[in-house]
Amino acid sequence: MQRRMNPREQKRMMQRMGMNMDNVDDVNQVIIRTASKDIVIDEPEVAILQVQGQKMYQVIGGQVSEQAPGKLASLTPAKPVFTDEDVQLVADQTGKSLEKAKDALEECNGDLAKAILLLSS
Questions:
Q1: Using one digit for the tens of pLDDT, what is the confidence trace for 1-42?
Q2: What is the rounded CA–CA span in Å between residue 42 and residue 24?
Q3: Exposed site from 86, 87, 106, 118, fewest CB < 10 Å?
């Protein structure tokens, strides 16, 4: 009869061997794109295993389908979300116009600190 290892014991043993494993939360879909097809995995469990500085992604379960390449909907990044107050803050901190502050926020995907650094340099 084979005894299952306690998850806590398993984690300790992995750490002793220099391995670390973390789950990735809220994964909706994983797409593996090859020259001849797209492999789509809906609602999988994904874990990242780090061993000696290398990252390995483990995809478990989910509904798998294959599609011809390019059949997937265009994956355009969402427009960054920021408020008028964010634009005003960046403009005030850098002494630049509201238009330049807004452009910087768009370029930095809504990250205030990066936008301020971009305009300050």
A1: 566 767 778 777 777 777 777 888 888 899 889 888 888 999
A2: 14
A3: 106
Average pLDDT over residues 80-84: 84
Going from the N-terminus, what domains does the chain have, and what CATH number goes with each?
7-67 (2.20.70.30), 84-120 (1.10.8)
For the beta carbon of residue 42, count every other beta carbon within 10 angstroms: 14
Task: Indicate the pTM of the whole model.
Answer: 0.45
CB atoms within 10 A of CB 58: 13
Backbone angles phi, psi at 109, to 5 degrees: 55, 40
CA gap 37, 55 in Å, rounded: 25
